[in-house]
Amino acid sequence: MLSTRVKVSPYVPRSCHLILPLVIAAPMSDVLAFSADSSALDAPLRHPAEVGAMAMSGSSGALTVPDGAVLRDGVAVFGLNNASEPEFYKQKRGENYQFGIGLLPYVELSGRLANYPGTPSNNGVRDLSANVKIGIPKIFNFQPDIAFGVNDLGGGNPYFSSKYVAVSDTWGPLRLNIGKASGQTYLRGMFGSAEYALWNSGASVLAERVSGGYVAGMRYVSRPLSQFANTHIVVGVQRTLGMHAPDGVRVNNSGVNLALTVPFGPNARAVRKVSLPDEPIWTPPVPSRTGSSPQQSNSMAPLWTPPSGVDVGGAQVDLVGAKTSDIPAEVLQRIQVQVEKAGLERVRVGQRGNELVIEYENHRYNQNEADALGIVLGVGAVAAPADVATVSAVTKKTGLPLYQVSIDRRSYARFLRDGSDYEARSTLSVRYRPGDGSDVRWLNNAEGARGYSRVRIDPQLIKFVGTELGVFDYSLSMNIQAYVPLWRGAEAGVSYVRTLAESDDVKHGFLGYAQQPNKLKAAILSQAFWVTDRVLNVTTGGKFNYDATGFQNETTWFVPYRDDQVRLQASRMHRIDFYGLRQDIRAASASYLWAYQPLGITAELGYNRYQSKDKGPSLQLSRWYGDIQAQAYLRTSEADKKVGFSLAFPLTPRQGMRPGWTHLEGSSSFPFKLETRLASKGKCNCITNSVVEELPMVYSARGNLLNHARTGKDYFVSQLQRMREAALVYASVVP
After folding, report:
1. How many CB atoms lie within 10 A of CB 592?
2. Which residues face 708 on adjacent strands?
3. How many angstroms separate the CA atoms of 111 and 629, rounded?
4. For 364-489, where are the E strands, in sequence order?
5. Which portions of the chain have biased composition (kind: Polar residues) (predicted)?
6. Most confident by average pLDDT, 77-81, 564-568, 576-580, 643-647
């Protein structure tokens, strides 16, 4: 029997409307992509097989068998079906919960939770399996889809273990698939399938040949639903024919398959019909320069007239070499007003030679700092005088300058106007520890208005999936956090946990240790400061994890000329146990984060001392789809090994509440994890407490200060189109 243990504070589905106030419930189009388009309804429907659906065997494919295609990059499938393999005919009819994602081009990861209840004479089967499928890149025309796959990796009870190769191709409405597999289940030997699309309706009929018999059925794939980030609904029905179990008993049954195929990130708007593929949905009309209406007079039109005798020729003459005039105070004032009107804090505007400098702090656009940067750079590029060569945005947190993003003003202004970022990309630069601005001629030396507190509400979930006790056991609570900024770089915070619901096994049974107390969880004081120009340190002290006292320290080194980071973490705490004895808690880690921005990939290799004093390496592979993070990870020590998969979603709108005395927000990235012990064949994959357990930072530098490690030059270059959209939509910039 396979047992798994998952311990996290994960994403809670939007249907749980009693958990989060509506003010922090983000629209799906805000979460899955930073735009979605209604024209997707008019897009021609692909062949149903090409949209992506999960086969009963665990990976993408036809009704029950895999095919040669992998899920498209950034496409996720959430499925449920009540079919079962013929060898489990002695168990009651159960269900399969499925998930798959195109993690990388030609790489698909998927998981399956099979739950077949037992009878008085036969034990039930409950198994959580992980699968991987690798496609062969197409290198010549008319090459078919070819994929290799492995199902049920590393399970102690490999009920569904198999290895296969499949080849598929489409000719008009007909798609044929043939493959060969070796394994312990019915997916062994030769298999094949045929699917015929019924005109352009999204419906198709299917027939399959597998080991032991035949399968026939139908499948329907909806058109993309633009209001739900171009999600497809997939419905399938099937019937086995002439199927035999391994003991020769004839077994025929029917099944229904329901699935959602969801494109994450930019893929959610890939079918839009626009002249520029990355152009935002909404572009404000350019007001006439003559006969402006009252509304047009408030737009960010050019605000400066060059000195007499200087011929600027519109904005096309390069004045970098010319003498720079002082920017008029009224222009700086209007820039500051426009930036503050967008909801940014601690704003200062000034001039350094031919550079316009805008300092700001953002707690309103919490999904991604790129939105706030887009607003600041957009307002500055449009409003600055023509002889200003560079616009720089200095990002601060709790008043501490963290990094400066600079870009050529004329290139960025043209990019705002026409949507082509070719020229602007090469002019963007990032500098850490930008300094205190003593060399800038500020409009006002004092910072602008700021918020005085923030309240964050996160669901907190401890859960157990696919154990011998049940399909899903849980303890669900609400974590209410309050933060108050103090002096530069310092912030005080408290966290209070209130339990909302628990399963019976947690409330009264064996899993009672997973109950979450209804009391203060943390009370901390955090101080961030620069050690050198590329080394940032965050030290946090106070009360942690309900009853522990101590400190945590996180040091980040930003690797020169790359978006990579080196991170050192250390925690040292103590608590008084039930017997009145002092219990010391120590944990530490050192890791290197490698980033490859063209694909939004990061890989982090580390070495850890875990909570239970066991030590070992860890590896995390992450992929960002807009603001959704998919992550596969492996943690090992001399005591055990654990493998897991995580999907992290923002639980806050793209544009949140305005700052003030206080404001309410959700988590910018909240993970939902599935984790299991990595066991050898035939060994128990049982719940193991404490070992290979990290001690997370209560006040994380990455989560609270560094945009989840997305701060480098290459990253912000990759976000230029998003930054343009933020300027046009949220700051009403008219280029």
Report:
1. 15
2. none
3. 17
4. 390-397, 400-408, 429-432, 441-442, 454-465, 472-485
5. 289-300
6. 564-568
Distances 678 to 3, 72, 177, 467, 617 between C-alpha atoms, Å = 11, 28, 33, 14, 15
Which residue type does 159 have?
Y
Higher pLDDT, 85 or 605: 605
Q: How confident is the model at residue 355 (pLDDT cuts 50, 70, 90)?
A: very high
Give the C-alpha separation, 168 to 61, whole Å: 10
**What size, in residues, is the chain?**
735
Residue 304: count other Cβ atoms within 10 Å of its Cβ. 17
Give the per-residue pLDDT at 676. 80
The pair of structure tokens assigned to 434 is: 């930008």
Q: Is there a contact between 465 and 675 (Cβ–Cβ < 8 Å)?
A: no
The conformation of residue 171, written as its DSSP 8-state character, comes to E
**Residue 358 burial (10 A CB sphere; 0-12, 13-18, 19+):** buried
Contact 165, 148 (CB under 8 A): yes
Q: Which residue has better confidence, 26 or 449?
A: 449
Query: β-strand 125-135 against 107-116: which pairing, if any?
Result: antiparallel
* Mean pLDDT estimate for the chain: 83
Q: Please give the Cα distance from 342 to 190 (Å, whole number).
A: 61
565 touches 700 (CB < 8 A): no
What tokens were used for 230?
């171009």
Give 78-133 as a DSSP string. Answer: EEEE----GGGTTSPP-EEEEEEEEEETTEEEEEEEEEE--BTTB--EEEEEEEEE
Tokens linked to 287:
């007001």
Quote the CA–CA distance of 465 and 344 in Å, as a whole number.
42
Give every CB contact of residue 680 below 8 A, 6+ residues apart in sequence: 156
Where is pLDDT greater, at 550 or 693? 550
Residue-wise pLDDT tens digits, 201-212: 999 999 999 887
Nearest in space to 59 (alpha carbons), one of 168, 142, 218, 144: 168
**Range list of β-strands (E), 143-198:** 145-151, 162-171, 174-183, 189-197
Residue 240 to residue 310: CA distance in whole angstroms: 83
User: Who has greater pLDDT, 1 or 351?
Assistant: 351
Rounded to whole angstroms, what are the CA distances from 29 to 26, 68, 247, 427? 8, 31, 51, 31
SS3 184: coil
Q: Is the pLDDT of residue 45 over 90?
A: no
Measured between its terminal Cα atoms, the distance across the chain in Å is 63
Q: How far apart are CA 275 and CA 198, in angstroms?
A: 31
Question: Which pTM was predicted?
Answer: 0.84
> What is the Cβ-side half-sphere exposure of residue 657, based on CA atoms within 13 angstroms?
18
Residue 183 identity: G
Tokens of 728: 């046009």
Domains belonging to the chain, first-starting first, are 36-269 (2.40.160.40), 319-447+718-730 (3.30.300)
Angle subtended at Cα 414 by Cα 413 and Cα 420, rounded to the nearest 5 degrees? 125
Q: How many Å apart are CA 24 and CA 38, to the nearest integer?
A: 24
Spatial separation of the C-alpha atoms in residues 258 and 234, rounded to whole Å: 6
Do the bridges between strand 615-625 and strand 345-352 make them parallel or antiparallel, or are there none, so unpaired? unpaired
Only one residue has tokens 């939004």, namely: 600
**Amino acid sitting at position 253:** N
**Paired sense of beta strands 628-636 and 641-649, if any:** antiparallel
Taking phi over 0 as left and psi of -120 to 50 as alpha, with beta for the rest, 316 belongs to: alpha
